[in-house]
Amino acid sequence: MRTSGRGRLGAAMAALALTVTALVAVNVTPDKPAGAAAVWSSGFSASQVFSGLTLPTSFQFAPDGKVFVAEKDGVVKVFDNINDTTPTVFADLKSEVYSYVDRGLLSMTVDPQWPARPYVYVLYAYDHVLGSPAAAPMYNDTCAGSGSGVDNGNCVASARLSRLTANVAGNDLNHMAPGGEKVLVEDWCQQFPIHINGTVAFGTDGKLYASHGSAGSAHFTDYG
Description:
By secondary structure, the chain is mainly β. It has one domain: 6 Propeller (Neuraminidase), CATH 2.120.10.30. The protein contains one helix and 14 strands; from the N terminus they run βαβββββββββββββ. The protein has one helix at 8-16; strands at residues 2-3, 22-28, 44-51, 56-61, 67-71, 75-79, 88-92, 105-110, 119-126, 157-167, 172-190, 200-202, 208-210, 221-222. The strands form five sheets. A four-stranded antiparallel beta sheet has the order 4-5-6-7, with no helix packed on it. A hairpin with an 8-residue loop joins strand 8 (105-110) and strand 9 (119-126).
């Protein structure tokens, strides 16, 4: 019997790879739009909103209409609105993010009181071992440990929940302020790269919630 630990997130990322360069909006209209593709049910149509993105994992609308998009390798981009075709890099965390299989910058949310509270919160796999005196990055998205290739050598990493502050002092909400990352939580040891950190979101109570997976293995084992 063969067993596989490949999880839902891994499957989701595999599906994401099919459309990694665009975000698509689905519009619901009372009647079927003229010329709509036959694959769409009556009342639905599709249009491309943003293009040129690399493995987008999360997008969030700010109250002022800005659209923030997180990419798996650790880049956060911001569009002024849905008609903006040239995004600005709000933050570049690639040197800190461990992007491999399910690891990466997987979730992001904007403070509901933006821009009065000019914060963007990110949850990502941190390219660092908890308690190690060595600075990140430790693996640069790869390592020479033992284990299967899909397990990336079973290299131990961790996770971070951070708050990114926009450059309010410079009157520039499209860029993170210098030194604007504040680490809120650095925890969650990751032995394997499957089922890693999940979602960060605000609850209806105004509190910020973050989830984490089992950090399991996708190694195939033959028991018989």
